[in-house]
Amino acid sequence: MRIILLGAPGSGKGTQGDMITTKYGFPRISTGDLLREEVVAGTPLGEIAKTAMERGELAKDELVIEMVDKRIQQDDCRDGYVLDGFPRNIPQAQKLEEIDRTREVVIEIFLEDAVVVKRLSARRICSSCGMIYNLLVKVPERMGVCDSCGGKLVQRDDDNPEVIQERLHVYHGQTEPLVEYYRRNGVFHRIDGDDTMQSVFEGICQVLDDALSETESQN
Ligand code: AMP
């Protein structure tokens, strides 16, 4: 089963994706994380994607699709996987269906733009293990230090006011049409993201438990 997490930047896809991994075992695949790794490693792919990422624009579809294709063929994705940040537009969604014809569940974590801006400005990431914090709702025990590994907490380069606006613009223009796309396919669920991490997760678990028991009864 493929779980697709839709939602504006900062809506909590990464955090909720990790919680899904912990509870259900499906690995979380974040195309943003994969691209950032390529940038840090200085690979040709990273070089190409870097400018788009700095501007808050989308990296080229072919690059991202190839990366996802490789990742979902790995063994740990055999029973299912969670996609965070992919697909970002309808062509990516169509390509994904061609690459892997598995059952899909799509969950949008919905958040108003004003809340997105507030959240992204307060987001901090561990530079060592990638753990996500938020100075408003998920505060580290020691300022600037990761609770989990002691790494240094940093702000993402694209979490600055101008780039946040561009990312929101791209989200509404290119990614939001996926809501209608998936609604028509009957696999779409919307969850209010402006709630505690735990409440949002409970909503997600309900959707996933239903989908999993349906899959079991079909087998
Ligand atoms: P994220 O970590 O998901 O917010 O992604 C950070 C940046 O990586 C985005 O602003 C894009 O520049 C790029 N990116 C991530 N996922 C995709 C995707 N599916 N298609 C194109 N670009 C992407």
Could you explain the architecture of this structure?
The protein is an alpha/beta fold and 219 residues long. It folds into 2 domains: 2-111 and 162-218, P-loop containing nucleotide triphosphate hydrolases (Rossmann fold); 112-155, no CATH class. Helices cover 51% and strands 15% of the residues. It has 9 helices and 8 strands. It has helices spanning 13-24, 31-41, 44-55, 61-72, 90-99, 113-121, 161-175, 177-185, 197-218; strands spanning 2-6, 28-30, 81-84, 104-110, 123-126, 132-134, 153-154, 188-192. The strands form 2 sheets. The chain has a 5-stranded parallel beta sheet, sandwiched between helices. A 3-stranded antiparallel beta sheet has the order 6-5-7. A hairpin with a 5-residue loop joins strand 5 (123-126) and strand 6 (132-134). It is globular. The two termini are 13 Å apart. The model has no long low-confidence stretch (mean pLDDT 95). The protein binds adenosine monophosphate. The site of adenosine monophosphate has 17 residues, from helix 2 and helix 3.
Summarize the structure.
The chain is an alpha/beta fold. Helices cover about 50% and strands about 15% of the residues. The protein folds into two domains: about 1-110 and about 160-219, Rossmann fold (3-Layer(aba) Sandwich); about 110-155, no CATH class.
